[in-house]
Amino acid sequence: MKFSTLLFSFVALSAIGVVAQDHPSVTAQPNTVYVGADGKFEAAPDTAELQMNVSAQDNSSQEAYQRAAKNVDQIRQVLRTNGLDPKAATVGFFSVQPMYEWKPKQRVIGYRVTTDVTLKLKDFSKIGPITEQLASANVSETQTLSYTLENMDEAKSRAVEDAYRKARTSADTIAKASGRSVGELSYASVDTFENQRMPMPRMARAMVAGANTPATPAPTEDFTPQNVTVTAHVNAVFTLK
Questions:
Q1: What domain count does the chain have?
Q2: Closest listed residue to residue 128, CA positions, set 150, 145, 140
Q3: Nearest in space to 12 (alpha carbons), one of 26, 24, 23
Q4: pTM of this prediction exceeds 0.70
Q5: Pairing of strands 107-121, 95-101
Q6: According to the model, what pLDDT value does residue 24 have?
Q7: Between the N and C ends of the chain, which has fewer C-beta atoms within 10 Å?
Q8: At what angle do helices 61-81 and 127-137 cross, to 10 degrees?
């Protein structure tokens, strides 16, 4: 059993925890026990976030913008085909950049327009068809898929509960070994940490050939999204009976 910090009466022993972080300093009091413990909770992600990068290049900024706008409209059509309201997706600002030729002298040879479209999905079964159809439509340069947990507060609470149980068990063990018993909780501090995002980038245009093959499974088919892990560290001071 591992303690990150233990104070019993006026005796103090310290150890480095798994996560290096400054914790509040606590003055040892007689007839108290100070323990620290790490806990964690793993939960399946409840939201998939698909980000699509749209880019178009043409001789004039207006033509490049129109091409980019057309690609974004095709994304809307893909969403409608899969029973989704296009309003479920968010679009970023359109960026216009001139393209230069440097030799024999600097001159503008065209314009490039880029934007990002982000879609959040609760129904993971739609991920495969949408990514394949977007790849076939050749409307985005990249697709980045990540899984997140939006109900994070509950996961943090479960991690804290796990850390507290371990801290209390440590205190009970020390108290029992000294012929005492644990009383009330007189102080506690809590830190939580989360491993929230699991990005899975892919080049959309590289998928086009495979997307046209009926036998090819969807990129996410038969796989389970990685769990989101939340960890917590609890420092607690208990009185001794």
A1: 2
A2: 145
A3: 26
A4: no
A5: antiparallel
A6: 56
A7: N
A8: 150
Lowest mean pLDDT among 8-12, 76-80, 115-119: 8-12
- Domain of 178 in residue numbering reads as 5-44+151-195+230-240
Burial category of 80 from C-beta neighbours within 10 Å (exposed 0-12, middle 13-18, buried 19 and up): exposed
CA dist 93 and 116 (Å) reads 8
Whole-angstrom distance, CA of residue 55 vs CA of residue 87:
21
Instruction: Find the angle CA(13)-CA(189)-CA(228) to the nearest 5 degrees.
Output: 105
Q: Can you tell me whether residue 183 is helix, strand or coil?
A: strand
Distance CA 91, CA 183 (A): 56
Residues 135, 72, single domain; the answer is yes
Mean pLDDT of the chain: 81
**Alpha-carbon gap, residue 74 to 184, rounded angstroms:** 63
Helix (H) or strand (E) holding 12: strand 11-14
> What's the confidence (pLDDT) of residue 198?
46
